[in-house]
């Protein structure tokens, strides 16, 4: 669900901004509020030109032992691992061990369309290979160790989703296969390749290929919030390989993404190729706009862990977010961090909630439109809960936080109604839009 976020970000693309001093006090207040209201657990790092300008850790590394998270805590980073893997593939390309155009037939003859799927197709998710983590039975065996042969067998057993290179569709299978290809060409385990070519040269002391979570090694457990924080099962790290098995922390991730985007890990030609976005995907990288700035990086999710990592080359700004439990979106945390750095406004959610009667919501119901907003928003209700639904998007259940004010905290959306003038103000990510009831 986009939750209006993409539209807001692209709307902000055309306004010029310049860097400011980061607002530490306001950011601290945001994270204190998130922690106090059981909305977020995790660690954050913002660095500029290689120097840390803000770091924060909130929540618990382990709830059972009441162990607090610290900036040094280590998290499973999920699909940010793909950026590491893509970097290793392009190193192999720079070393003339692979090419983007070669097919994968010699490595995986049993994969559907292997003779037409290229290394490049795997990198930018244009292979058509079914995403094995979408299998209905995946969560029945994801905590059990698998061999490389078993993984390839699972991936090969599924039909192709589409013709190679005809479109883009995200698939973890692509990066599992890339990990195995790296092992075949270097004749060593993926973790050894990762250590030799990225971790040691960059001195990433808190980054490595994961195993069972070890609290005594400053690693953290992950949680989901259902009124209380519930510990989540651990995916066996032999399954995601270079698609999602790396452990790190925000400080190390910031060093890595800066080194990559500054051309210190792969050739200039390879970096340009990685950054070339086609149907939302580069090769191991995605891009996001923020006003007139553009950042490159990736997000990740595995078990109850979520993460974001982006680098803005124009300001040499790296932002890394790792979470082991949240019901407040990482996108909203990212917007707050960027807004603080660039001197843009952002709101601290109140997380208060009023209980209203169903009939009290009637004054807000209807269709709303705004001249400077590309979608209409329909306001409806379900019993005593107000619902907002933008054109082409899913419904959002809103919480009443004050008279005529409703919020969807996970996406940082605030709606303020004026029933007398029949207007509604939408606030998100520093944007403000005035809607009128039709």
UniProtKB/TrEMBL annotation:
It comes from the Bacteria. Residues 43-328 form the Beta-lactamase-related domain. Gene3D superfamilies: DD-peptidase/beta-lactamase superfamily. Residues 1-19 form the signal peptide. InterPro entries: AmpC-like, Beta-lactam-related, Beta-lactam/transpept-like. Keywords: Signal. Pfam families: Beta-lactamase. This is Beta-lactamase family protein. The lineage of its organism: Bacteria, Pseudomonadati, Bacteroidota, Sphingobacteriia, Sphingobacteriales.
């Amino acid at each position: 669900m986009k939750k209006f976020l993409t539209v807001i970000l692209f709307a902000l693309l055309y306004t010029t901004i310049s860097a400011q001093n980061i607002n530490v006090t306001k950011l601290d207040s945001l994270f204190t509020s998130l922690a106090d209201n059981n909305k977020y657990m995790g660690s954050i790092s913002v660095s500029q030109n290689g120097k840390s300008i803000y770091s924060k850790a909130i929540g618990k590394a382990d709830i059972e032992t009441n162990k607090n998270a610290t900036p040094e805590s280590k998290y499973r980073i999920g699909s940010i691992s793909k950026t590491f893997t893509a970097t290793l593939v392009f190193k192999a390309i720079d070393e003339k061990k692979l090419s983007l155009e070669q097919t994968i037939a010699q490595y995986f003859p049993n994969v559907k369309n292997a003779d037409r799927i290229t290394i490049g197709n795997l990198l930018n998710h244009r292979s058509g290979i079914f995403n094995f983590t979408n299998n209905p039975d995946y969560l029945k065996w994801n905590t059990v160790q698998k061999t490389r042969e078993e993984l390839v067998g699972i991936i090969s057993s599924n039909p192709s989703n589409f013709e190679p290179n005809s479109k883009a569709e995200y698939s973890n299978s692509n990066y599992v296969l890339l990990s195995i290809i790296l092992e075949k060409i270097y004749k060593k385990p993926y973790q050894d390749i990762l250590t030799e070519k990225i971790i040691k040269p960059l001195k990433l002391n808190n980054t490595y290929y994961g195993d069972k979570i070890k609290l005594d090694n400053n690693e953290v457990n992950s949680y989901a919030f259902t009124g209380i924080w519930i510990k989540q099962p651990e995916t066996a790290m032999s399954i995601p390989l270079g698609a999602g098995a790396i452990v790190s922390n925000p400080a190390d991730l910031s060093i890595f993404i800066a080194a990559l985007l500054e051309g210190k890990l792969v050739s200039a030609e390879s970096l340009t190729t990685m950054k070339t976005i086609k149907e939302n995907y580069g090769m191991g990288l995605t891009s996001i706009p923020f006003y007139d700035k553009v950042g490159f990086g990736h997000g990740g999710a595995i078990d109850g862990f979520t993460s974001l990592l982006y680098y803005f080359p124009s300001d040499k700004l790296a932002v890394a977010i790792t979470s082991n439990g949240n019901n407040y979106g990482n996108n909203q945390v990212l917007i707050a961090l960027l807004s603080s750095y660039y001197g843009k406004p952002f709101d601290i959610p109140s997380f208060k909630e009023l209980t209203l009667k169903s009939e009290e919501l009637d004054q807000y119901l209807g269709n709303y439109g705004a001249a400077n907003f590309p979608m209409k928003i329909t306001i409806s209700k379900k019993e005593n809960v107000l619902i907002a639904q933008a054109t082409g998007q899913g419904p959002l259940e809103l919480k009443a936080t004050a008279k005529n004010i409703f919020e969807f905290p996970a996406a940082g959306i605030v709606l303020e109604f004026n029933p007398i003038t029949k207007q509604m103000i939408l606030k998100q990510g520093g944007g403000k839009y005035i809607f009128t009831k039709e």
